[in-house]
Write a structure and sequence with these properties.
The protein has six helices and 27 strands. With about 375 residues, the protein is α+β, with helices and mostly antiparallel strands. The longest helix has 12 residues.
């Protein structure tokens, strides 16, 4: 194999394909990055039996062939190269990389022992890359991190005609995002539980193009596969991963909150206030939100050592009438901060029912407008000490 590529094209392609490599591969061969060169260009890929990544880029192919090299090492080398064309060649045992006066020789791994990458499933539909990336970022914050409870580490992707829904929960909070997309079948329906970690990676690395194609195979079988394909300036990128098994909890009904009290305020002001006040919050202690007539006040403390409070202007509506049904709410400060930071609107709207009950968080474009319904974030309130 012998190819020539632009330095930036190679560095970006290698970095993207190597990003999916396991840090501790179960077998040494999985640390390899496979490079294939043919008449259509160069393909770089990685696979760990769960997730595969493949990128196709343009290159000058002098001799066709393939080579398997250490992916992490090649990524580090490509990142450090001078801004000159890169020549990469290989024989039966070694690969040689030349860029300007820099020269590297790498030992090859046996291509014959490398596993076959899974094929992309049939396309289910197409969604705008920016909208999809934003939706993923808004939802994955509510996904669990405990690998002992894998069903909570996933994002449930639901297809209902021309609406694509993403739902995640770690049992203490939940997030739902609904967005329009173009399904391959106008009457398409289905659901898949996708690892949140893989979706988060896709949001960061596949948003440079206009659209992302979503492909599904055996989504309801528990051993299915999802594929994502995006086209950008750096070439065509494909990502596949196995779906998670298990029954995702039925939590959609928790989004239908009939509030007794609502609170609206500027998102950026509240984000800054939460950040400051929670500096003194003890571990596992609530951030207290006191609800007044025209403001809310945040309070936190570390026993007798430190206390903090700050008021934020707000519009408060007593939906139930009479006296305020709830005048204080306890939030996990990290959960509240996560929800506010991904909201993406100038104003935030809280819907409260009672102390200790779930609270619905939505975004607003205008303080006097209606809260948006396409993104909903529910936080389970903490019990406040008397």
């Amino acid at each position: 194999m012998k190819i020539r590529m632009e330095r930036d094209v190679m560095a970006e392609a290698v970095a993207w394909a190597a990003r999916s490599l396991p840090s501790r591969p179960s077998v040494p061969i999985l640390a390899g990055l496979l490079i294939k060169a043919d008449a259509s260009g160069v393909t770089m890929s990685s696979f760990d039996y769960e997730t595969s990544a493949e990128v196709q880029v343009e290159a000058q192919v002098i001799d066709e062939g393939e080579a398997l090299v250490s992916g992490k090492l090649l990524a580090e080398i490509a990142r450090s190269l001078p801004n000159r064309p890169v020549d990469l060649s290989s024989d039966n045992t070694r690969a040689e990389l030349v860029c300007g006066s820099a020269r590297f020789t790498l030992q090859l791994l046996p291509v014959s022992e490398y596993p076959q990458l899974p094929e992309m499933p049939a396309a289910a539909g197409v969604v705008g890359s920016d909208e999809f990336a934003q939706a993923i970022n808004q939802v994955v914050v509510a996904a669990g991190r405990d690998e002992l409870l894998p069903v909570f580490t996933g994002v449930r992707l639901e297809i209902n005609d021309d609406t694509l829904s993403l739902l995640a929960t770690d049992r203490y909070r939940m997030a739902l995002k609904e967005l329009a997309w173009n399904p391959a079948d106008s009457s398409a329906e289905g659901a898949a539980l996708v690892p949140a970690r893989v979706l988060s990676e896709a949001a960061r690395s596949m948003s440079s193009g206009e659209d992302i194609t979503i492909a599904l195979a055996n989504a309801e079988a528990g051993e299915g596969l999802i594929g994502l394909e995006g086209k950008g300036a750096g070439g065509v990128r494909q990502l596949t991963t196995r779906l998670l098994g298990g029954e995702f909890p039925k939590v959609r009904h928790l989004m239908d909150i009939q509030p007794s009290v609502t609170v609206s305020c500027k998102t950026d002001e509240l984000i800054a206030s939460v950040k400051r006040v929670s500096l003194v919050a003890e571990r596992n202690s609530p951030l207290r939100m006191l609800i007044g007539d025209e403001q809310i006040a945040l309070e936190a403390a570390s026993g007798d050592q430190a206390q903090a409070s700050e008021a934020v202007a707000a519009q408060v509506a007593n939906v139930a009438g009479g006296e305020l049904a709830i005048d204080a709410a306890g939030f996990n400060p990290h959960y509240l901060s996560d929800a506010l930071n991904v909201l993406g609107t100038p104003y935030v709207h809280f819907s409260f029912t009672a102390a200790g009950k779930p609270c619905l968080v939505r975004g607003m474009d205008d303080i006097d407008g209606e809260p948006k319904g396409d993104y909903r974030h529910v936080i389970m309130l903490m019990r406040l000490p008397n």
